[in-house]
Amino acid sequence: MEQGPIVTVLHGGSAPDADLTAGMAVRAEVRYTEASGLAAALRSADILFVYDFQSDAVPGAWHAADRLSWLHMGSTGVDPVMFPELCASDVVVTNTRGVFDTPIAEYVLGQILAFAKDLSGSLDLQRSHHWHHRESERVAGTNALVVGTGSIGRAVARLLRAAGMNVRGLGRRERLDDPDFGTVGTDLYAELPSADYVVAIAPLTPETSNMFDAAAFAAMKPHARFVNVGRGELVDTDALVRALDSGSIAGAALDVVDPEPLPDGHPLWDLPNVRITPHNSGDFTGWRTEIVAAFTENFDHWTAGRPLNNVVDKELGYVPG
């Protein structure tokens, strides 16, 4: 009987439910491991499924990957595995593009509505038993700049347009008739001054690291709000704190920060115009099932010799197109 492939599954202490991987287990040897055992589990393995996609263990164990041909990330972002040795290898990298698009778009719209309607202020008044009539802002007719035109950025653009917002995109290539963004620009500093809301969802690459620096925040409107659902490292955190503290921008909703987790005592915790969530904007009930399903579908493609879904361009650091 021909031996099946060896699949290593990196998890963070809680492996995928065996029922979810049962179909794969009958065709492959599956090794479940935490970070401490990754090197041993990689020896002679054909496939690595990074189920714990926030782990930074892969580079340190890479020396043991003597037969690996495919690495699948359980997330959209692949920056934790874009280290030089992997990028220079023949190992194919895929991601879980598509699973988190809609929930992250819903999170972005929710944060924008929370800013415009000052929902936190209403909750404060309720807790103090204070009936105080106020007016709020409209969302319809405002301008949003979505920085990052991948599948999540497109889902964000579609939902914001449905709420009546004017949306533009920022990407690598200029486009004038994009179906989701309408117009896509390439010059961040040219796009920022007209935006009421700026949404960061670009992949983390050497080109995008710290792209939101002091100059970027200075180019934004004083009433503009910044929403980051990409990576904390897209932002110069000290520059963001100064911009918020000085009133250079009006507020920020941060699902990702740098450093992460945010240390106790960091000034971002206590700024009144900041909303922080613990990197969970895409984590809807059932997301773990969805990422396993995305991997097992790709495993079916791999075993059948068909092209894999969501192949990452290792030079770009994301799935193109």
TrEMBL record:
InterPro entries: D-isomer_DH_NAD-bd (IPR006140), NAD(P)-bd_dom_sf (IPR036291). It holds the Pfam family 2-Hacid_dh_C. The keyword NAD applies. Gene3D superfamilies: NAD(P)-binding Rossmann-like Domain. Residues 110-280 form the D-isomer specific 2-hydroxyacid dehydrogenase NAD-binding domain. Signal peptide: none annotated. Keywords: NAD, Oxidoreductase. The keyword RNA-binding does not apply. This is D-2-hydroxyacid dehydrogenase.
